[in-house]
Amino acid sequence: MADVDKLKHCKKPMGYEGREVAREMNERHFDLWKWGLEHISINPDYLVLDVGCGGGKAIQILADFCPYGKVHGIDYSEEMVSMAQEVNNELVKNNHVEIKYGTVSSIPYSDNTFDLVTAFETYYFWPDLENDLKEIYRVLKPEGVLLIVNEVYKNGNFDERNMEYVNTLDMHYHNPKEHKEILVKTGFTSVETYTKPENNWITIIAKKQ
C-alpha cells in the first residue's frame, strides 16, 4: 500500500511535504518528460504553456528547446507556483519564463496564444476533462499542438497498482483508444498515441485545426 498522504500531494502539492514530493517528481520524471518530448518538434521561437507545472523542472527542459521563444507555466497550487519560480529564477529574470497561478478550467491567457501546450502528469486530475480540454483548445493557435505525457495508462499490466492511485486520487484513467476518442470529441485532430508498455508510459499528441 502506497503512502496515501504522499499520493495526495501528487495531485496538489502543498506545504513542506508538497515541496518534498515535487522535488522527487522533478528528478524521477525527467526521463519520462524527455521521452515524451522526443515525439514532437519544437521550434526555437515557440510560445509554450505548461499546464500544471508543479516543481518547475519541465519548464527548464522546455526553455532549452525554444531559446528565442517563451515558456509559460501555470499551477493551481500556490506552493508550486512559488517553487517553480525559484527553480527557474534566472529564466524568469530574463523574461524567458513566466510562471503564475492558474487552473486548466480557466486558463489566464487569450485565445490562439500558444504554439504548444504541454501537460506532464497532470491530465489525471483535471476536474472537468471535456471542458478543460476545450479550454486548452481555446488558447492554442491554429495548427497548435497539445502534448500529454503520463506515467500511468490503462493497459492491463499495471492495473493493481494503478487502481490504488485511481481510487485514492479520483484520477482519470484511460487506454490509448479512449484518450483519442475524448480528444476528437473536444475538437482536436491528428491524434497520435505512443506507449512504452514496460514502463506504463504514454504520450498523446493532438493538433488544433
TrEMBL record:
One of its GO terms (biological process) is methylation. InterPro entries: Methyltransf_11, SAM-dependent_MTases_sf. Pathway: Lipid metabolism; Phospholipid metabolism. GO terms for molecular function: S-adenosylmethionine-dependent methyltransferase activity. Pfam families: Methyltransf_11 (PF08241). Keywords: Methyltransferase, Transferase. CDD domains: AdoMet_MTases (cd02440). Residues 49-148 form the Methyltransferase type domain. It comes from the Archaea. The keyword Cell inner membrane does not apply. PANTHER family: PHOSPHOETHANOLAMINE METHYLTRANSFERASE, PHOSPHOETHANOLAMINE METHYLTRANSFERASE ISOFORM X1. This is Methyltransferase type 11.
